[in-house]
Amino acid sequence: MTEQTNSLVQIRDLYKRFSISGDLLDQLQFKGGKIVRHQEYVHAINGVNLDVMQGEALCVVGESGCGKSTVARTVMGLLNPTSGQIAYKGERIDHLNDRQILPFRKKMQMIFQNPYASLNPRMTIQQTLQEPIQFHNPNMSAAEVRDKIHEVMFSVGVDPTWGERYSHEFSGGQRQRISIARALAVDPEFIVADEPISALDVSIQAQVLNLMMDAQEQRNLTYLFITHDLSVVEHFGTRVAVMYLGTVCELAPTKQLFSQPRHPYTQALLSAIPRLEDDRPDYIKLIGEVPTPVNLPSGCVFHGRCPHANERCRQEIPVLRMLDDGTQVACHGVEENRL
Amino acid sequence: MPLLEVNHLEVCFGLRSGSVKALRDVSFTLERGERLGVVGESGAGKSVLGFSILNLLSRPGFISSGHVNFEGKDLASLSPSELRSIRGNRISMIFQDPMMTLNPVLTIGDQMVECLLAHRKISMADAKRVALQKLKQVQIPSPEKRLDQYPHELSGGMRQRIVIAIGLLLDPDIIIADEPTTALDVTIQAEIMDLMLDLCEKNNVALILITHDLGVVSQVTQKMLVMYAGRIIEQGPTKEIINDAQHPYTQGLMNALPQMALPGQKLNQIRGSMPPLQNIPRGCAFNPRCEYAFETCKHNLPSFTQSGNCLVACHMVAEMKQVAAHKEEL
What we know:
The structure holds two protein chains of two kinds.
Chain A: E1 7-19, H1 24-27, E2 28-31, E3 34-37, E4 41-53, E5 57-61, H2 68-75, E6 83-88, E7 91-92, H3 102-107, E8 108-111, H4 115-118, H5 125-136, H6 142-155, H7 172-184, E9 190-194, H8 202-219, E10 222-227, H9 230-236, E11 239-244, E12 247-253, H10 254-259, H11 264-271, H12 311-315, E13 321-322, E14 328-329, H13 332-335
Parallel strand pairs in A: 5-10, 5-11, 8-9, 9-10
Antiparallel strand pairs in A: 1-4, 1-6, 2-3, 6-7, 11-12, 12-14, 13-14
Chain B: E1 4-15, E2 18-30, E3 35-39, H1 46-53, E4 61-70, E5 73-74, H2 80-84, E6 91-94, H3 98-101, H4 108-119, H5 124-137, H6 143-146, H7 156-168, E7 174-178, H8 186-203, E8 206-211, H9 214-220, E9 223-228, E10 231-237, H10 238-243, H11 248-255, H12 295-299, E11 304-307, E12 310-313, H13 317-329
Parallel strand pairs in B: 3-8, 3-9, 6-7, 7-8
Antiparallel strand pairs in B: 1-2, 1-4, 4-5, 9-10, 10-12, 11-12
Helix pairs in contact in B: 4-5, 5-7, 7-8
């Protein structure tokens, strides 16, 4: 795999499908006098190529079921890709076994959506933070570990004297701070955040986002930030990848994406954000709903809901193309200058 | 006389550790056909308010004082059977998660017909006709087919449309919608909100929209109330509050929205978090988080001050206005 300049994580031709047909006996069906084996798959990711650059916050947005969380989990090695490659600083990591991946685990950490579920209720905060530090730094002395815990708790704005408390004694915002502290405890370079603020209230969301931005500045972190909330993206992201049904349909610097969305789906998505200013904006109405990822549409995955679809869109799968202004978009219409 | 008038409503939850007041001194009115937004963070009491209007609170929650007057009748004091004739019939409710509200073992048609038969003297065939007509109203594709389908066969957006159709079945006067689009994606949310707005306008139905999303409230409602720790802290015309919020908490909420800060800049956060209901600070509940708070705020509960067309529960409203005016002069 060729290494690109300052790209930290490379995702190449990533495919992930999940079998939903159960075990062998469930798969056998009686059809036309014969017993046939019938398998069905959810095609969660279909050929995703992404580069996460050193020091940026790459946001992945999309509606539920578009595969954005699957991308996050596959990058972290929590799921094995069906095919494709993932590389960290040029080294392929997707096929490593548990032992081989350990040094990478220390550099890549994850923050999950629901802080009520991602913290162990039977562990004190001290224990929660201690575990990853000791696991990844077996040579650290007890005093050093204690200092480290103190430092990360302080840096996320949680009083270090609360270490003996359990997670249920904290509010949602504080819990999410603690999960961020847990991720920061091993001094990672790269953090995957899967909807880290969507379970929180507006005023708390702002606190947690600020905290994540501070941490990025101080520790020179790189984020892969998964969210469905476009207004957060506008604020937080360096670049944005918009996903639809397992494929990236547009990838652009944040400012550009918001000022001039090119893909029809991105346009519809942006127009649907409820804004404070206008009374009843004319949003672009999409026809129908997201098709199931079990039977993917032919051609462009978006053609069934796209107001500009033509025959080519129904047959040929569009690929991401770089436009003059640096936006990458997967749309025949844009390529043909129809849109 | 307003259609619905809530007067000094107080709701208690009797817990082993003592009783907790989830709502305190909540008063507002709703006119026929009016759309009211109820905004607040989780734990502010907005859902409890929705539930207590129809007296749907289950133990250990109960209305400890106050009145809910609907066309002159106090819903808080009605018997269960009298209440049943109003619930679903005159005032209906739409909940957040359509998967939890629909019965998974009944077809859509059965659930709709059941609701009609319970409230009206109507034949099965007529009930089916009404159900079909309502499904058409909520713009469900091929409605005839849906009547025989089960909830799990439909997508989230479609299920919420069905729930709205059921809410509209008996042509109610008021719909209480508790976070109706929170479980849905933005594109679907936009469609559902549009649909609800249309239906309310067409049928002259009043809407109480409970949500944490200020964007949705600003687009759908005419009037709004902001809740904090069980109390209303600000109420008035939605436009005025959105454009010129008076209460420091409302201001904080608006400013915390990512769209209010420049990209890459820090967001304006409100420090701390909402106090638990067992442990509400003395005086103004917001005072420990408020940047304008001074001595009075720590001891005395603020009463409502009229400011423009809005009612604001804050000691500092007048002072803040002076400061703002002073700044403008400079």
